[in-house]
Amino acid sequence: MDLVTRAEWRARRPRSELTALPSARGTKLHYVGSFVSPDLAKSCARCLDTVQGIQAYHQDSNRWTDIAYNLLVCPHGKVWEGRGARVLSAANGPGLNSGHYAVCALLGDRGLVQPTAAMLRGIHDAIGYLRARGAGGQVLGHRDGYSTSCPGPVLYGWLQRGMPLGGQRDDTTPIPRRPAVPRWPGRYLEYRYGKAMLRGQDVAAWQTRCKQLKYTITVDGAYGPTSAATTRVLQRALGVADDGVVGPKTWAAAW
Ligand SMILES: [Zn+2]
Ligand SMILES: [Zn+2]
């Protein structure tokens, strides 16, 4: 995951202390709404200006403590740290902020209205990041439970289709919505160069899960270098240590 920290985007300090929210049922998706310049997609320097501008607007005009969202995602797939993880957002509407964290896509209702493939992957990254830090499995739109068009018809439609990722993946296959977490099989799945590959049902179960999450992997029940490499990519998306070893933390984060 390509995270831009608050320090990196030179965020202002919160106007007062943010409210801790150690866990929530899940995440709600937002868009900027209004007009977003299509030029944003040309250069990530413009994303920096946009994120800074949103924070200034929320602090100066709305008089909120800080930028409303926990995370933001730009057309280049970068995940921008808003309020960050484990704190209350100000985005979902009165009384609705303690139920869900908030992720905002830098898309408008005019101008830039279509998400890039990188942005969609970035939204998955952002959700995975929050799930590894207290968010439950629910993913909803701002309009669920609140009178607004946010996150717009395009993103909301994508959400309703199960947030499929494009590219070489099959766009019509929905990502399963939070199946029950199977128990960690009890042995660490890892690949060591020069040693025999681990084989078994547990390896196959892990590979199947990677495949469900739209990673390219062969389900052959043998944990080789390709499985380890895929695990590392997935671990980065989930915000856990990317050592290529499937232990209980990685296992739990993937479901
Ligand atoms: Zn919204
Ligand atoms: Zn960008």
Task: State the main characteristics.
255 residues, alpha/beta, Lysozyme-like, Muramoyl-pentapeptide Carboxypeptidase, domain 1, 2 domains, 6-stranded mixed beta sheet, two-stranded parallel ribbon, 6 helices, 10 strands, 29% helix, 15% strand, elongated, binds zinc ion
Describe the structure.
With 255 residues, the protein is an alpha/beta fold. It folds into two domains: 3-160, Lysozyme-like; 198-253, Orthogonal Bundle (Muramoyl-pentapeptide Carboxypeptidase, domain 1), CATH 1.10.101. It contains six helices and ten strands; from the N terminus they run E-E-E-H-E-E-E-E-H-E-H-E-H-E-H-H. The strands form three sheets. The chain has a six-stranded mixed β-sheet, with helices on one face. A hairpin with a 5-residue loop joins strand 4 (71-73) and strand 5. The protein starts with a strand and ends with a helix. Mean pLDDT is 92; it is low at 168-176. Residues 44, 47, 74-76, 78 line the site of one zinc ion. One zinc ion is lined by residues 30, 91, 142, 148, 150.
CA-atom Rg in angstroms: 19 Å
Q: Identify low-pLDDT runs.
A: 168-176
CATH homology superfamily of the largest domain? Peptidoglycan recognition protein-like
The N- and C-terminal alpha carbons lie at a distance of 18 Å
The name of the CATH topology of the largest domain is: Lysozyme-like
**Overall geometry:** elongated
Helix content: 25-40%
Order of helices and strands: EEEHEEEEHEHEHEHH
